Amino acid sequence: MTDLADRRKRLLESLEQDAFVTYNYEHSDQATLRYLTGFTGEGALIVSRAATLLLTDSRYTDQAERETDGVTISETRNWTRKDLVEAIDKLGVSRVAFPSGRVTFRWAEALREASKAEVVALADPVAPLRLVKSEEELGFLRHAAQITDEALGRLVDEIRIGMTEAEIALRLEWLIRENPASEGISFDLNVSTGPNSALNHYSPFMDPVALREGDLLLFDIGTRVAGYCSDLTRTFSVGSPTEKASEIYDVVLRANLAAIEATTSGATGVAVDAVARDLIAAAGYAENFGHGLGHGIGLEVHEGPRVSPQSEDTLSPGMVVTIEPGIYLSGFGGVRIEDDVVVRDGPCEVISAFPKDRLIEVG
User: Fold this and answer.
1) Can you identify the CATH homologous superfamily of domain 135-362?
2) What pLDDT is attached to residue 1?
3) In the chain, how long is the greatest CA-to-CA distance?
4) Distances (CA, A) of 59 to 24, 34, 43, 65
C-alpha cells in the first residue's frame, strides 16, 4: 500500500519553506496531486507540517473522500484563488513553495499579491522525489508494459494490407482498454505507415493512410495502470521488407541493444545516449536521429531522468527510463525501437517484452 503520508513528509523535509501548494485544473498537475494524495480530480493542494488540505468543488468531493487518506477535504467553488489564499493564511505559514514549471504565471502573481505568506517559486520540488520508483510503482509499470505487449501481440495477427492507420489505432486502443487493470492509453497512439513513420509524433486520425506492400509500419503506444505509464515502440514491415528497411532496422536494433547494456547505475544520461548515437552515426545516419535516446516514465509518460545529449542526470537504481533510438528518412519512413527499462546496480531490467530481434512482417 502506497505510503502517501511518507511522500508528503519527504517533500516537506526537502523544502526550506513551511508549506507547498499546487493545483490541478484540466490536467495541469494531476501527477503531483495523485503522487501526494491519491486524488485524480481537480483541486488545489496545500501540504504543510500542520495539515494536508485539498480544496475542490462539489463535482469531486465524494471522489476525494474515496481516493485520499489523511487529507482534509474542503469543498469550495473558488479553490484556485480566493479560498486557497484564505486557507494558506489560516494555516499561519510564513513561506509557501509552488512549482513554477506547473502553474501559470497569472496564478502565481495573484497568489503573491493576495497571500500574507511569502510565495516562493521552485521549478518542481516533487519531481526529484518521483525519480526513483518504489517496488509498488515498479509493479504498476511492469503491468502496464505487459498489457501493452499483449495488446500489440493480439493485434498483429489482425493486420491486413488496405487497413488504415486509424482503423488499426482504434482496434489497438480497444484491446488495451478491455484489460480490467488498464486505465486506458497513456498518450495518443501513434500508428504510422510509409513516409508517415518518419514523423515522430504522428496522429493516425488526421488523414489516415492505408497499408501498402513494402511500407514500414510503426507503433508508438502505451498503457496506464494505477496512473503509471508504459511507452513501447515497435516497427514492422508490411509484407516483405525492402533492402533499405532491413538495413536501418538492423542499425537501430544494434543501437537499442547496446544502449540497454550501457544502462546501469552510475551511468550518465549523456553517456548512455552517446552509445546509441555513435553507433547510428558510424552507420552513416547521424543526421537521421534527432531526438534524445530516452526519458523517464512514471505517472507521466515524459518525466525525469533524461537520457540525451543535454541530460544533467546520473542514473540510480529504481529509476525507469525508455531506450528509443531511431532512424528517420524523409519521404521513405522511419524505424524506432523503444523499450522501458529499470535501472539496477548491474544489468538493467527490461520490462517491455514484445519481440524485436527481426523486422517482423505483417499483412
Assistant:
1) Creatinase/methionine aminopeptidase superfamily (3.90.230.10)
2) 61
3) 70
4) 14, 17, 10, 12
